[in-house]
C-alpha cells in the first residue's frame, strides 16, 4: 500500500510540472512543497553558448570572423549580470561605479583589448535577446564590429526568474 501511495505522489508531481519548451523558469509541485515563487531551471551555460552561436551567425553573415569564447570575458559578463540582477538595475555602470573595461580587467583581460559591452534584461531566450540587440543600432554595431575577436556572455536570473544578460567583447589575439 505504501509503495502505491508513493508512486501516486511521484506521478502527480510529474504531471504537475509544466512542459513549456524554451521557457527559462518553471515550478514543480509536490505534496510536501508549499507554493513559492518559480524556481529557475535553466542551463546557464547552454543559454550563454547559444547567444554566442547566434551572435556568430550574425557576424559571419555580415562578413566578420566568428568570435572565440574567452573565459575571462565570461567571468566579467557573469559578474556584471549578477550585479544588475542583485540591484535590479540595468546599466553599463556597475553598482561600484565600474565600467566594462574595469570589469574585464578585473577578470584578467588585458585593458588594451577591451572592446565593447551589450546588456539587456527580461528577454526569456537567447534568440529573443540577440534579436533585440540586432534591432538596436548601438548593440548591432558592437556585434558586427569585425575588429572584435573574442566574446564572453553571462546570463543571471533573479529569484523571480527575470534574466539579466551581458555580452562582453574583446580584441585579443587568442
Automatic annotation (TrEMBL):
Residue span(s) of domain SCP: 53-169
InterPro entries associated with the record: CAP_dom, CAP_sf
Q: Where is the signal peptide?
A: 1-27
Keyword terms, alphabetized: Signal
Q: Per its UniProt record, what Pfam families does this chain match? A: CAP
Q: What is this protein called?
A: CAP domain-containing protein
